Amino acid sequence: MTSIAVNKNIIAITRGLRIDCYDYSNHKIIDVESRDANDSISDIVIASNCEYLAIITSMSKQLIIYNWPTFKTKRKYVLPRSASKIRFSPQSDHIFVADKTGDVLMYDISKEDDGIKLLGHLSLLLNVLQTSDRKFIISSDRDEKIRVSCYPNTYNIHTYCLGHTEFVNHLEFLPHNNKYLTSTSGDGTVRCWDYVTGKMHYSIDTFLDINDETLKDDFAKVMIDEGIEVNSLPIVHYAVTKKDESCSILAIAVYNFNKILVYSLNSDDECFRHRLLQKIDVEQLPSSLALHGSSLFVYFDVKGTVLIYTIKYENTNISIELEKTVQIFVNDQSNGVSDMENKQSIKLLYKRKFDNVQEYQERKKQRLGKV
């Protein structure tokens, strides 16, 4: 779930069925209509041409596209199933929907027609995007897979990017070289791929910079009680931005870790290296985060605040400083999503492991005991 979208013109934040669009001086509140009292906005995205903003809702399954800067509704669709992620095409003329049954749908925003099913996974889809040359659709799921499908003939699977050991929840192209795809996972790693060949070129293990066995053990104990075996802390939020032609900046929030990890990732031909730039202290797990240009945006739903950090580049030194705090939904009396609710949502992505053999043996003993 993403509750913040940013470009050079606005910061758009969601809470419940409301959107606060802040243009760096004024706030514009948009209320989304729904008959379901438990409904909420589950994802928000801004088109690369800065002309459209789109959201999806969880219960009423609405896909709504707004014009910018008027915020008038351009298109409204009802999705066939609940969705987990939406993305605009690179040309901002289509929108892709990853739904929770494993299908990717495509909507032409110039038309009112229903979406076209492009492809399907056998697992819950968590992310989707299209390459800038429109040759491929890349999708990721709960079953550790990243699939690269040809477009428009998406029945042709070009390759898979395999290596993650848990769900793959984020996909982003490497901003300074979009030949490469970056991904994050419940296994706590960021991986960099040549998505055409499916080859993994680099991996960052965030736990090496957390280095807190107690955090990991506490999480493992909670999860084992729910029938889930884990060996790492999952990455919850992820954002990327371009520094220059050879370097990108990555911002990462990890489950239960009250610091945001900020890295630089450099590449020279096929040689990669990364550096931990800073650990930014936060009071709790953020609701969402975003990078745009030289700014990092960190959103806390319960407090209704966005912290805006400036990334400063001085020769080879990179520093990150808090620039200002923006209060959003000022007159909104509704409760935000708590830290506990944020943490609970990530747990649902893990697959339960059942020991059917042990269960069978126990039932067998019970039957024999009755004889």
UniProtKB/TrEMBL annotation:
It comes from the Eukaryota. The keyword Methyltransferase applies. GO terms for biological process: tRNA (guanine-N7)-methylation. WD repeats lie at residues 161-203. Its main location: nucleus. It is found in: Nucleus. Pathway: tRNA modification; N(7)-methylguanine-tRNA biosynthesis. Gene3D superfamilies: YVTN repeat-like/Quinoprotein amine dehydrogenase (2.130.10.10). The keyword Nucleus applies. Keywords: Methyltransferase, Nucleus, Repeat, Transferase, tRNA processing, WD repeat. It holds the Pfam family WD40. GO terms for cellular component: cytosol; nucleus; tRNA methyltransferase complex. Belongs to the WD repeat TRM82 family. HAMAP family: TRM82. Forms a heterodimer with the catalytic subunit Mettl1. Interacts with mei-P26 and weakly interacts with bgcn; required for the function or formation of the mei-P26-bgcn-bam-sxl complex. Interacts with nanos; may be involved in mei-P26-dependent derepression of the BMP signaling pathway. Interacts with Myc; the interaction may be mediated by mei-P26 and may be involved in the regulation of ribosome biogenesis. This is tRNA (Guanine-N(7)-)-methyltransferase subunit wuho. It comes from Papilio xuthus. The lineage of its organism: Eukaryota, Metazoa, Ecdysozoa, Arthropoda, Hexapoda.
